[in-house]
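Researcher: Good morning. I'm working through a list of sequences from a screen, and I'd like to move beyond sequence-only analysis. For each chain I'm collecting a predicted structure so we can compare shapes side by side. This is the next one on the list. No need for commentary yet; just the structure.
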Amino acid sequence: MIFQCVDCDFQLDLLEQKYYLCPNCGSKMYQKKVLNKLQVGNKGVKAVLEQYQKRVDKDKLEELIAKENKITKKANKAGLRKVKDYIKALFSLVKNNGASNYNKTIAGGALLYLLNPMDFIPDFILGFGLMDDLVIIMIAVSIIGTDLNKYLTTDSTLSNNLFYLIQPKSDYINNQYTEQEGVRVLYLHPDQLDEFGLQILNNNLIQTSKLYVGHPYFYKILIPCDRFDQYISNDLIDEEISLLAALGAKKVKYQVHNFEQLSLSGEVDFNLFDQIIAGEVKARKRGYKYTKQEKSLEFNQISNYNLNQLEELVWYFTHQNQFNDIIKNRVLTDLTTEEITLEYSTSNFLNLDTRTKINLKADIDGRFKMSNVIHKKVNYKVKFYPRPQVVENNPQDYYKQAQTKLRERRIELKDNYKKY
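Model: Good morning. Structure tokens for this chain:
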């Protein structure tokens, strides 16, 4: 049965199911026969939604909310029963003051079409009166993507992780794509990576019969699942040290406490970690493997105040840390020494629920192997060089430049993440 993506038109021959998530762009895939009901292609569908979206303002949203009962009653029609939960979620989104204006206009445009399906149809799309309400809702849901999760019931949520199982070229792939209980797996031969625009982390060699997962931000870069946590935890520290060097660090001495979680049950308690640092045996009794690392680094003054490093940041924005204050104090007050303690967990980038499901699959198929969650507590002691004269003369201007670069990088990363 052929399924087609509502956004990028990607097609796969899959088992019958309500919908799949596209392994190419992350939007929803529906049976092609449903999409073929339209007399125009998907670009025409999106054009219609865009016409409605342009007419959504604060007053129009209030009008839609006032007519929620009328629209939800329409959702009880046979053709819309299957997307009733999505319609409710779209209403919840438009009523939420914290939702982005862009998502509100997308949701509002779809709901406005349900209310007045023949209004605002552009002249260049002829015969659009045969448009299915179902498809408009599908398009809106796929554009909003995982931002809609918080408004959906648990069993309707959209998965945010796509796994890749690279098969030996000699193996016949019977079912190229599976989606069960929120775990999405795409089966590929090595020569198909180029077809999907994928590459292995650090351009490493492809290992067959191995499970990979997309990078949390650069979703076309694949990380081996059995090394996912090691990569993430090491990359976090590498980035923090690079940032300290860019801010003019002369010497960085750091101590890393690694707590590898041996089971997936329970939440993280860093107060507990303070109690088990005494030794490995005590850590194992608590369900953790504990290791400690200490290192000291020195830097040349030539790297002092390299703001270009801010354009390379990835993990800086993903967890609360003290670097915002450090950047401010370093630029504005010529901070000379600093001590920093940071705590984070790799479960923030691949949640425990998904890991549990992968481990259950591993009991059946040994190729589904997931590394253990790593929690880190890092203590930095930093000595800085004096500010260069150009910063000394214009600290406010320099700080504004830094904030601009951080803001632009945050937006760039947010766009990357939404694609996944």
